[in-house]
Design goal:
With 416 residues, the chain is of the alpha/beta class. The chain folds into 2 domains: 204 residues, Alpha-beta prism (UDP-n-acetylglucosamine1-carboxyvinyl-transferase, Chain), CATH 3.65.10; 196 residues, Alpha-beta prism (UDP-n-acetylglucosamine1-carboxyvinyl-transferase, Chain), CATH 3.65.10.10. 30% of the residues lie in helices and 27% in strands. The strands form 6 sheets. A 4-stranded mixed beta sheet has the order 22-23-1-24. Helix 5 runs parallel beside helix 6 and helix 6 packs parallel to helix 7.
Length: 416
């Protein structure tokens, strides 16, 4: 098992490029089950979850190749079972339910795994598919769904679930009749999936809003498509620039999709400026604490909560962070306390009081974004920090240590 070793205290300076978005690439890859003919994807990040998804596609009968950041895919002989050995490591695997029900009228998918940050039940997915004519049984840890033919339906989610919206969107593309998805997730990654499906011939309108209309078609065709850049990776680099009192030019930055993050960074005293060749980020004087509440898009993203908390550890005064998406997403707090942070938890709210500096220490990552927050903290801390269990980090950040070393960081990978 690997760990990252970081010698902190170096101001990061220079250009740093953002990779393709993991949270957009995963559903798009699983949507490759739907079209007839070859799909050619570009800007696909080389990540652990991507390799897991490609293995799952191969098992499901989809022939794939991964060269550089390009994926080609073509369905050969579609199977209906997603085995536990793959699904247990990655929650996004449940997104094969929609395509399999739409194409084969049957799907057998193991209950999903992933980061241990909350319940994230699939009930909303299943109830939506039931409205489209599917029936489900739970058999030995597997969700077994069957239908005659999925029918278009009016789906109104109780909560704007990203995975649920994506799953239904893929199924509705090939369902009989029209579907309306109300209280749909508005995240840019959902919109990217819709744009991919449209490129394959789907008839979708309203994506990017809370009401999506889908007119089912009889078939989809292969296409060429470029995955959007990763807004969470870009946001993490923004925090790293401010944390180390450096200056980064973030290239391929999805600036418009980061409105809520940029707003809070500016409120804290960070200079963020969109330029022709990227987004320039540096401190704009003294950092100050702010109050943050995580919300579904276009609100402040839960995936940036840990990174902003880390930045607030060095800000003047105090601020609060209320986590309203996941009930178990403060596991990084105990590790930040080991580095000298001043954070108090009460339920789903963290009170952060700024300190003069952080100190390097051995820390352990508990999930993907917690990993990123500990790396950012280590970049600014005095002395050496060992970030253990970075397999979480490898699920969401492509070549992170290489990119950070390119802007001056002292970071390397070692075996634990």
């Amino acid at each position: 098992m690997d760990k990252l070793v970081i010698e902190g205290g170096v101001a990061l300076k220079g250009p740093i490029r953002v990779s393709g978005a993991k949270n957009a690439a995963l559903p798009i890859l699983l949507a490759c089950l739907l079209p007839e003919g070859q799909v050619n994807l570009t800007n696909v990040p080389r990540l652990r979850d991507i390799h897991t998804t490609l293995k799952l596609l191969d098992i499901l009968g989809c022939e794939t190749s991964f060269d550089g950041n390009n994926v080609t895919s073509i369905v050969k002989d579609l199977k209906v079972e997603a085995p536990y050995d793959l699904v247990k490591t990655m929650r996004a695997s449940v997104l094969c339910l929609g395509p399999l029900l739409a194409l084969k009228c049957e799907a057998k998918v193991a209950l999903p795994g992933g980061c241990a940050i909350g319940a994230r039940p699939v009930d909303l997915h299943l109830s939506a598919f039931e409205k489209m004519g599917a029936e489900f049984d739970l058999e030995s840890g597997y969700i077994h769904g069957r239908c005659n033919k999925l029918k278009g339906a009016h789906i109104n989610f109780d909560f704007p679930t990203v995975g649920g919206t994506e799953n239904v969107l893929m199924a509705a593309a090939l369902a009989d009749g029209d579907s309306i998805i109300e209280n749909a997730a508005r995240e840019p990654e959902v919109e990217d999936l819709a744009n991919f499906l449209i490129a394959c011939g789907a008839k979708i309108t309203g994506h990017g809003t809370s009401v999506i209309q889908v007119e089912g078609v009889s078939s989809l065709k292969g296409c060429d498509y470029k995955v959007m850049p990763d807004r969470i990776e870009a946001g993490t680099y923004m925090v790293a620039a401010a944390m180390t009192d450096g200056e980064l030019l973030i290239q391929d930055c999805p600036y418009e999709e980061l409105d809520a993050v940029v707003y809070k960074l500016r409120e804290m005293g960070v200079w963020v400026e969109e330029k022709k060749d990227g987004v320039l980020v540096r401190r704009n004087g003294e950092l100050v604490g702010v109050d943050i509440t995580t919300q579904p898009f276009p609100g402040f993203p839960t995936d940036m909560q840990a990174q902003l908390m880390t930045l607030m550890c060095l800000a003047k005064g105090a601020g609060t962070i209320e986590e309203k998406i996941f009930e178990n997403r403060f596991m990084h707090v105990q590790e930040l306390l080991r580095m000298g942070a001043n954070i108090k938890l009460k339920g789903r709210t963290a009170m952060v009081r700024g300190v003069s500096g952080l100190t390097g220490a051995p820390v352990m990552a508990s999930d993907l974004r917690a990993s990123a927050s500990l790396v950012v903290a280590a970049l600014a801390a005095s002395g050496r920090t060992d970030v253990q269990r970075i397999y979480h980090l490898d699920r969401g950040y492509e070549r992170l240590e290489e990119k950070l070393c390119g802007v001056g960081a002292k970071v390397w990978r070692e075996k634990e």
